[in-house]
Write a structure and sequence with these properties.
By secondary structure, this protein is α+β, with helices and mostly antiparallel strands. It has helices spanning 2-37, 114-145; strands at residues 39-52, 56-65, 68-74, 88-94, 101-103. A hairpin with a 2-residue loop joins strand 2 (56-65) and strand 3 (68-74). The longest helix is centred in the N-terminal third of the chain and has 36 residues, at 2-37.
Amino acid sequence: MRTRLALWGTGLLCLLVAVLGGCSASRQWRQAERIDAAPVRVTGVVTAVEHVPKSGDEQVIAYEVQGHRHTVTRALGTGPGSPGAGHRVCLEADRNHTDVVRLCGERYPSGDDMYPTYVLVGVAGAIGACVVAGVAVGARRHSLSNPAG
C-alpha cells in the first residue's frame, strides 16, 4: 500500500512538473512569436550588476520603447569582458507589449536554452504518465484478484 502511494505521488509530481514546465515553455514561445511579428530594436544600458548566490552575476538593463522606460534582468556573463554598468546592449521588444523583450540574436525572451527545457518537460511528462498508468493498472489487477468479502 505504501509503495503504491509513493508511486502515485512520484507520478503525479512528474506530471505537475511537466505541466508547469510546459506552461512556462509555451509562454516563452508565444512571447517570441509576438516579438517576431512586431519587433522594435532598442539599445539598453546596463545600470547595475547584481550578484545572485550560486548562479553568478545578473545585469539590470534599462531601455526605452515608445516613451516608456522599462528594466529587465539578464545573465550576460561574469568575469572579465562581461558587460558592466554603462555598457550598451542590443534588445528586441514587442511593439505592442513593450515589457516583453529579448537580447538581439536570441529566439526566446529568457534565452535560447529553451530546447532542453522542452525535452525535459516531455520526458518528465512521459515518465509521470507511465508511472501513474502502471500504478492504476496494478491497483486494478490487485483489486480484481483479491475481491473484498
